Amino acid sequence: MSNVLEIKNIEKYYGNKSNLTKAINNISFNVEKGEFVGIMGASGSGKTTLLNCISTIDRVTAGNIIIDGKDITRLKGKHLNKFRREELGFIFQDFNLLDTLTAYENIAIALTIQKVDHKEIDKKVKEIAEKLDITDILKKYPYQISGGQKQRVASARAIITNPKLILADEPTGALDSKSARQLLETFETLNKSLNATILMVTHDSFSASYAHRILFIKDGKIFNELVKGEDTRKEFFEKIIEVQTLLGGDLNDVI
Fold first, then answer.
1. Burial 157-169 (b: 16+ CB within 10 A, else e)
2. 110 and 160 in contact (C-beta within 8 Å)?
């Protein structure tokens, strides 16, 4: 399979010569099309910085990030904005829905910005809503729906432009256990039915167990990698816990 994401020897420094912090220390890895990859690590490990660099929120100090054959570390200005808008999908912990828009309008807004024909927008919104089981809430506003429903609306918004890569930052962090499970099943739907490529940062072993592969970050480097393979989700979950134990610290604080 082809690589959607290629991370090549990236480094990220903060500060100056007298007080230099190396947040990312020569990390390299690839993500294939249709993969669901999780990133885990203790607070301060560099995993959020890594996601920020991939999402173009931050810029690397050295190295290259290539998404669908395009080196995003070389993009600037309107070209970078266009790439972010058209090729990346984002799912955040706090949903980031617009309160003054209905669920339908929140999902459709990305296509509206791209000036897609309204009939095509309507067709796509209804299709993705049906897949994610949110058809009955499309006319409701964010304050009228549950946290889990909000996150599924956010997931629909992320996938509707058919991005090359979906980036999820602690997507279950604000959800109760039932809503978290429903969201993770939504991710499975996106991944299996729509062949979406997902990169998810999470502190939660249960959430991570839905991924195909986990990268553990420690001190700005890849500490370990787990591949689910033929394991059941329960077996994979237990292996994740074992690696977290090796990473050290209270498991509840591993974020």
1. bbbbbebbbbbbb
2. yes
14-to-25, 44, 65, 74, 176 alpha-carbon distances in Å: 12, 13, 19, 20, 35
Task: Give the pLDDT confidence of 157-208 residue by residue, as tens digits.
Answer: 999 988 999 999 988 888 888 888 888 988 888 898 888 999 999 989 999 9
CATH superfamily of 3-253: P-loop containing nucleotide triphosphate hydrolases (3.40.50.300)
pTM confidence score:
0.88
| CA pair distance 141, 104, nearest whole angstrom | 9
Edge-to-edge strand order for the sheet containing 88-92? 88-92, 165-169, 198-201, 36-41, 213-218, 221-227
Domain ranges within the chain, ordered by starting residue: 3-253
What does each C-alpha distance from 226 to 37, 155, 243 come to in angstroms? 10, 25, 9
Q: How many residues does the chain have?
A: 255
- What is the b/e burial string over 101-127, where b = at least 16 CB atoms within 10 angstroms of the residue's CB? ebbbbbbbbbbeeeeeeeeebeebbee
The structure tokens listed for 168 are 């999820």
Answer yes or no: are the C-beta atoms of 47 and 54 closer than 8 Å: no
Quote the strand ranges of the chain, DSSP E: 3-16, 19-32, 36-41, 62-67, 70-71, 88-92, 165-169, 198-201, 213-218, 221-227
Q: What is the pLDDT of residues 17-28, one digit of tens each?
A: 788 888 999 999
